[in-house]
Specification:
about 45% helix, 5-stranded mixed sheet, single chain, 7 helices
């Protein structure tokens, strides 16, 4: 198994943790900001990795396995002396807003295979925070993922309508218009041969 050190990336750490748990029969899925970081190729930087354990009866075994990787529990978090990232295991089941029909993908990392939210559901997850809590940073994260990964816009639109809530239609329209503008901008950049200048990573 790969060693965890100060140069270990979020992708590598996700693979290490997921593999160690899966080898002991504990299925997990990566959710939250780390998924945004992976799908945006580091344009957004997350400081933590959130894994949801499929079978809650297995949760009692997590501490021992994380300990073998060099992690120490600190409240709800697991920290590692050689990594700036910390790991959490939020309670399941996995849901996005009111939707429990969540789509997972698998991604091969340099250190193992990881189950994680699909790009489409990652966008929905970020939009849920924008819709219900008016968290505009989450809107920006949704746009980052949508601009970097293939998504199913019609499915996001359908989910938004089912999610409901104050001003959801207006907020989705803002997302849709800005997403279209971003895609158009990328297409123009490809035609002119000019790459887009990326801003520094968001934290």
């Amino acid at each position: 198994m790969a060693e965890i050190n100060e140069t270990t990336t979020v992708e590598e750490l996700a693979g290490i943790v997921a593999t160690a748990l899966e080898e002991q029969g504990i299925q997990v899925a990566l959710v939250g900001g780390a998924v945004v970081s992976i799908y945006t190729h580091g344009e957004y930087e997350s400081g933590d990795l959130d894994f949801v354990v499929y079978n809650t009866t297995m949760e009692s075994r997590v501490d021992a396995i994380m300990s073998t990787l060099g992690f120490h529990r600190d409240g709800r978090m697991f920290t590692h002396p050689s990594s700036s990232f910390f790991v959490e295991f939020p309670p399941g089941p996995i849901s996005i807003g009111r939707n429990y029909r969540v789509e997972l993908d698998t991604m091969k990392m340099p250190t193992g295979v990881v189950r994680l939210l699909s790009p489409t559901d990652c966008v929905c997850d970020r939009l849920a925070a924008f819709f219900h809590w008016n968290d505009r940073r989450s809107l920006e994260h949704a746009l980052m993922v949508a601009s970097n990964q293939p998504i199913h816009l019609n499915r996001i639109k359908k989910w938004s309508a089912e999610e409901g809530g104050p001003d959801v239609a207006i907020k989705f329209q803002e997302f849709e218009q800005r997403y279209a503008a971003a895609i158009h901008g990328k297409a123009r950049a490809r035609k002119t041969g000019k790459g887009e200048e990326r801003p520094p990573p968001l934290k």
